[in-house]
Amino acid sequence: MVARLAGQTRLLIVGLLICLSAAANAATSSQLRSKGKALLQERCGSCHAIGAVGTSPLKAAPPMRSIYARFAPRELQAELREGMVSRHREMPQIDFSDEDVDAIMAYLYALAARK
Asked: Domain residues of the chain, as ranges?
């Protein structure tokens, strides 16, 4: 009986650790997406729509969700790291750090996954 209770206790502890790990990962993912949204709002939001819906403040600027849909993920990551190049002169070249790119991609992926 004692051995059986010890085994059940171990299983309970393992289960709790798995749940806590999943909760920590969800919180980290949420923070990453929030950071990505904030970065886009700060650096791109004056021209591009950054939300799941809505039009861009600058008519000629496509929503970021459309840009995400146009590129393969690795290609978009490279473009963000190197500074997106645009055909119109008014768009500033912004180089994002690797951490910023990861956050932006997490946010844009979350938008795409909602559809």
From this structure: 2-114
State pTM to two decimals: 0.73
Geometric angle at alpha carbon 57, from 56 and 61, rounded to 5°: 50
Q: Burial-class residue 6 by CB neighbours within 10 Å (0-12, 13-18, 19+).
A: exposed
User: Rounded to whole angstroms, how far apart are CA atoms 106 and 103?
Assistant: 5
Taking CA atoms, 60 is separated from 17, 21, 54, 73, 90, in Å, by 50, 44, 14, 23, 11
Per residue in 31-57, pLDDT tens?
A: 999 999 999 999 999 999 999 999 999
Q: Which two tokens stand for residue 60?
A: 């000629």
**What's the CA gap between 89 and 96, in Å, rounded?**
19
Architecture field, domain 2-114? Orthogonal Bundle (1.10)
